[in-house]
TrEMBL record:
Stretches assigned to the NPH3 domain: 201-476
Pathway the protein acts in: Protein modification; protein ubiquitination
Region (Disordered) residue spans: 497-595
Residues in the signal sequence: none
Top-rank taxon: Eukaryota
A biological process from GO: protein ubiquitination
Protein name, as recorded: NPH3 domain-containing protein
Keywords, alphabetical: Ubl conjugation pathway
Cytoplasm found in the keyword field: no
Length: 595
């Protein structure tokens, strides 16, 4: 960083009881009060008044031998800036750099140290240094613009802000091969020795040191040129957010303490809302993971509903590109005992589905949009497998998120079954009602044979789900094997009456004789087929009525007693123990898998 040295004399200023003076044989005749500091100086013996037009005017009515007292509390830059001007008048050596240039120039302008007062004055030297050194450098321009925040009105009126911004934008728009100045670039794994070419985002880290208002001025000016791609603008916003916005764990730890003051919260809220307002409209200008991070922080900071809605909308547009790690943000709500913020994911999912349903039917049927919603469905099922391990995850929130995914979004229910199985393992104390509600979202027909075979042997599943699995397993086998039809669960429990009726029909058929049998045989076979279809159609309802949960065994046993009494007159006793029936079906399923 460049600097300018002025003056040659040694610094003879010293402090005594909040009074600054310099070692001199001449008595001080000019007293200047600035805030809490008093300066004892000289009017004519040293070139202080000849170089300062303001002091000349204030001391105009006083005689040469008269001591004058002045108060300059409103001087820009305070006592430090005034002392630089005083040392310049006394010829004491001073160094001017980008860090103290703004305050020195503003104070010199305030004291009217122009060339019109005396040639080669302080203002002229400062302006020359500004134009030839500061504006020509990259980091000097950044540092100078950063210091203008302490004197915004003076800096704006003197044109310092505009000139620094113009210089910075000009360098940012310079093609990377032509960048010759020093810059800060600390990306993980990047070393300048290994990379000889300048990265396209070389400027993002240095610019992120600026105040949010100055940063916004630069970003909006760059966007108006349409030279840089939206992704590069988005990268600059991402770097700035990482530089200034606190992380989620820090937010959660400080949210309940006094350290997170309202002033700090308001500052972070302004930064986040400003960043969101600058995100380019182009899809993919920022990553979906970055959008989810901003959304999670916004919930804690309490940003405006407009900002939150915009973040949800932008995240939903790129939801299919997300990974599970992009969604894993801890809940920032003090009332929510869950570790993961499922409400955030649910809000984005619901907005995604609304946007997806607005598309025309022709567009929805296309392979692109089908693939899009399938990716989201797989993402949610994978996310459920992670949040299922949360000990405090409520069944209602788990089911609500799973049910929000439409049927078309899942090719099968294998991933959903894995999520449910993990939840059951991690929550062994789950009630029967909650298990029923949890497994009610599972469609047994959409499980692969391997997963269905695992589910049949899963002791964690409720009895209703196991019976449904057994039915679909045997129903599938009965359709594939026509020569040897396996007994179905409903035939074991409720088929006694049907078999008795079939027996009576068979006996009556034999009593008609050969001629009648030949005439009505086709009609009888057709009637039997229709009876079988009606019986299969009522299967699901009968199973739910007879075997809902393991606590309904007594009801099943009473039905078994009735069936046994009807069956005893014609076919003898039948063993109808439901537990043994399920055990035999599971053993058959295992035997089928082994074969």
């Amino acid at each position: 960083m460049k600097f300018m040295k002025l003056g040659t004399k040694a610094d003879t200023f010293y402090t005594e009881q909040a009074t600054r003076t310099l070692i001199s044989e001449i008595a001080a005749d000019l007293v200047i009060q600035i805030n809490d500091i008093t300066y004892l100086l000289h009017k004519l013996q040293f070139p202080l008044l000849p170089k300062c037009g303001l002091l000349q005017r204030l001391c105009y009515d006083s005689s040469d031998s008269e001591s004058v007292s002045l108060e300059l509390h409103d001087i820009p830059g305070g006592e430090e800036a005034f002392e630089l001007c005083a040392k310049f008048c006394y010829g004491i050596a001073i160094n001017i750099s980008a860090h103290n240039f703004v305050s020195a120039l503003c104070a010199a302008k305030f004291l009217r140290m122009n060339d019109s007062i005396e040639k080669g004055n302080f203002v002229g030297k400062l302006e020359s240094f500004f134009n030839s050194c500061i504006l020509e450098g990259w980091k000097d321009s950044i540092a100078t613009l950063q210091t203008t925040a302490t004197l915004p009105e003076w800096s704006e009126n003197l044109g310092i802000v505009r000139k620094c911004i113009d210089s910075i934008i000009e360098k940012i728009l310079t093609p990377p091969p032509q960048v010759k100045w020093s810059y800060t670039y600390t990306r993980p794994g990047y070393t300048k020795k290994q990379h000889h070419s300048v990265p396209k985002d070389w400027w993002t880290e240095d610019v992120s040191d600026l105040d949010i208002d100055l940063f916004r001025c630069i970003i909006m000016a760059i966007r108006s040129t349409y030279v840089l791609p939206p992704q590069l603008i988005g990268e600059a916003l991402h770097v700035y957010a990482c530089r200034w916005l606190p992380g989620i764990p820090k937010l959660k730890s400080s949210g309940s303490s006094v350290s997170q003051t309202e002033e700090s919260k308001q500052k972070n809220r302004k930064i986040l809302e400003t960043i969101v307002s600058m995100i380019p409209a182009d899809r993919g200008s920022v990553s979906v993971g970055f959008l989810f991070r901003l959304l999670s922080i916004s919930i804690h900071l309490g940003v405006s509903s407009v900002t939150k809605t915009e973040l949800i909308r932008r995240a939903s547009l790129q939801f299919e590109e997300a990974t599970v790690s992009d969604l894993l943000y801890p809940s920032t709500s003090s009332s929510d005992q869950n570790y993961y913020d499922t409400e955030l994911v649910l809000a984005v999912l619901e907005t995604f589905l609304k946007l997806w349903k607005r598309m025309s039917p022709g567009a929805v049927d296309s392979s692109y949009f089908l693939r899009s919603i399938r990716n989201v469905g797989k993402l949610i099922d994978s996310y459920l497998q992670v949040v299922a391990r949360d000990d405090n995850m409520q069944v209602s929130k788990f089911v609500s998120l799973a049910e929000t995914v439409p049927s078309i979004a899942r090719e099968d229910h294998d991933d959903l079954y894995q999520a449910i199985n993990i939840y059951l393992k991690m929550h062994p104390e789950l009630s029967k009602a909650d298990k029923k509600r949890l497994c009610g979202i599972l469609d047994c027909q959409r499980l692969s044979p391997e997963v269905r075979g695992h589910a049949v042997k899963n002791e964690l599943l409720p009895l209703r789900t196991v019976v449904q699995l057994l039915y679909f397993e045997q129903d599938k086998g009965s359709k594939a094997t026509s020569s040897h039809k396996l007994p179905k669960p409903h035939e074991i429990l409720l088929g006694a009456k049907d078999r008795a009726a079939t027996t009576r029909d068979t006996q009556s058929k034999h009593s008609l004789g050969p001629a009648k049998e030949e005439f009505n045989g086709e009609e009888i076979r057709e009637r039997d087929k229709q009876k079988t279809k009606r019986s299969d159609g009522k299967l699901a309802l009968n199973l739910e009525k007879k075997m809902v949960i393991r606590g309904d065994i007594e009801e099943t046993q009473s039905e078994k007693g009735r069936i046994v009494r009807d069956e005893s007159s014609s076919s003898g006793k039948v063993n109808m123990d439901p537990k043994k029936m399920i055990r035999r079906a599971r053993s058959k399923s295992e035997h089928g898998v082994k074969k």
